[in-house]
Design a protein that fits this description.
Elements: H1 5-11, E1 22-33, E2 36-46, E3 49-53, E4 63-69, E5 76-87, E6 90-95, H2 118-130, E7 138-143, E8 147-153, H3 159-163, H4 168-184, E9 187-193
Parallel strand pairs: 8-9
Antiparallel strand pairs: 1-2, 1-4, 2-3, 3-6, 4-5, 5-6, 7-8
Amino acid sequence: MALAKEDQRQMKLIPNQRQYPRRAAVIVAKYTVIEGTFQDIVGNIGAGGLFIKTKRRVAVGQPILTNIPLLELKNTIQVPGRVVRMDPSGFAVTFSEPVAGLVRKEGHFPEIIGEGSPIKGLLALIAKHLVDSPDQVSVKEIDGFHTLVFELSVDKQDLGKIIGVKGRNIGAIRTIMNAISGKMQKRIVVELLG
């Protein structure tokens, strides 16, 4: 299948040279390509595209329709684009048009789950799925020399859901954070605020 001249021109862009900066993200996006419809983790995202982490092989140059979840978890945006690069850890997508919410001075997209620190985003994502008031969940990150502290704030009525029976939920959350801390060589502390 021959590519249109515009598509060929876009694919000749210098690698790692983007018009819009990208930021790390913790997002599970659903996407449709010629090979089928799949869900994988987005590694980074910006106004002009994203990188999907996967071992799945997809053909470079093909169109892609990506469904990206918004912060409230109930809505998604559909973004058409094209697969522009494939490597062993995943593939890069350039959007057909820049996503308006991503066109910012810093290139960030505050409506996307986990934008910014991937660990902070993961903690917020887990908490939002446990509580009745996900809009009341916030995570503050305090980065120290040897310790990374995450202050998890939820609605007072949702404290029990985060703690869980006999502390199982908060214990599981802290176990996940401790597993991550080994790779970072920093101690991670999760403080629960209500």
